[in-house]
Amino acid sequence: GTYKTTFGIGVNITNFTIKSASGNPYKCILDGQGGVGSGFPLTKGKGIIHTMAPGTIQGIGFINGGGGDRVSDGEAGLYAESFKALSQLNVVNCSFDNNENGIFVPGASGNGANVKISVTNSIFSRNKPNGVVSDGQGHNVYISGHTFVSNKNIWLPSKYGNNLKSRALTTTVQNDYNKHDQGRCLDIASGGKLTVTGGVYTSVGPTAVSNFICYACENTNSGIYTPTISGLTIVGSRANDCIWNNAAGITMNFASTTQRWASSGASFRIQGPGSVTGIVTAPPQGTTYVAIPAPVFPPYVNY
């Protein structure tokens, strides 16, 4: 069913579990009704689930978490902060639709300092896109804590923001499907340690908003390291999609990357001052064009 309620987990609780009976997030939905701006008091004004402690959330759907006031102020389906010690929140088999942010964690120099978060087998923006505020400051996920790990998730286009915006000290992305539109697939805005392994990356929408992946594109507050990127399948579909390495002296190498092309007009634009290697910027002569691959949804979608 759909439940118009919120949950708060206090700082002295450890290793909690919130789990739906079915394990299917489309059958157990928490509705934030647009959040504070729509007259619905999210927990602490921040999240449908707001947690100050580590634990596991499994098989829950989050919808309408914030954005009703049309201001990006950090509201989210799931908001995590102020853990007593460095510890991990696990998010498994969850879905996020029509939220200001699907998941939000504040800065690693403040309330996000002890927050590690792992997201697995979850789906963003399948039914309605997250990042609902037109200022572009809301995203499928906005992480600024200690560590973020993404594994086997499906990222469909955020409405106005990025699919993953991370300012975490360490960001690891493994075997995801990531298709973006106006924002980026991966916006690693403040640098930090970055590992991206496997998965499919592509884009839809007009060339006028072509962005793809960036590293340290806003600042270097999380430190500058050589990213490890390998085994990706990248499908070029529009002109001038930008891969931006803003870390001078650092090379972003796309090792063992498979590139396919959905359009003869597709291309990638490399932007520095850092260097980018391992990317072919336009379809080679004799290219066989392919359709943009569809995501393979987890089995729970068909329950």
Strand order within the widest sheet?
1-4-7-10-13-16-19-22-25-28
SSE string, helices as H and strands as E: EEEEEEEEEEEEEEEEEEEEEEEEEEEEEE
How much is the radius of gyration in Å? Answer: 18 Å
Kindly state the percentage of residues in helix.
Answer: under 10%
Strand content: 35-45%
Class from helix and strand fractions: mainly beta
Helix count, DSSP H or I runs of 4 or more residues:
0
Per DSSP E runs of 2 or more residues, the count of β-strands stands at 30
Shape: globular
Low-confidence stretches: none
Mean pLDDT reading: 95
- What's the N-to-C terminus distance? 14 Å
In short:
By secondary structure, this protein is mostly beta strands.
Give your account of this protein's structure.
The protein is mainly β. The chain contains no helices and 30 strands. The chain has strands at 2-3, 7-9, 16-19, 29-31, 47-51, 55-58, 61-63, 76-80, 87-92, 95-97, 103-105, 115-120, 123-124, 141-143, 147-151, 154-155, 164-166, 170-174, 177-180, 186-188, 193-197, 200-203, 213-215, 228-230, 233-236, 241-245, 251-255, 258-261, 268-271, 275-277. It has a 10-stranded parallel sheet, with no helix packed on it. A 10-stranded parallel sheet has the order 2-5-8-11-14-17-20-23-26-29, with no helix packed on it. The model has no long low-confidence stretch (mean pLDDT 95).
Keywords, separated by commas or semicolons:
single chain; 303 residues; mainly beta; ten-stranded parallel β-sheet; globular
Topology:
Blueprint (H helix, E strand, L loop, with lengths): L1 E2 L3 E3 L6 E4 L9 E3 L15 E5 L3 E4 L2 E3 L12 E5 L6 E6 L2 E3 L5 E3 L9 E6 L2 E2 L16 E3 L3 E5 L2 E2 L8 E3 L3 E5 L2 E4 L5 E3 L4 E5 L2 E4 L9 E3 L12 E3 L2 E4 L4 E5 L5 E5 L2 E4 L6 E4 L3 E3 L26
Parallel strand pairs: 1-4, 2-5, 3-6, 4-7, 5-8, 6-9, 7-10, 8-11, 9-12, 10-13, 11-14, 12-15, 13-16, 14-17, 15-18, 16-19, 17-20, 18-21, 19-22, 20-23, 21-24, 22-25, 23-26, 24-27, 25-28, 26-29, 27-30
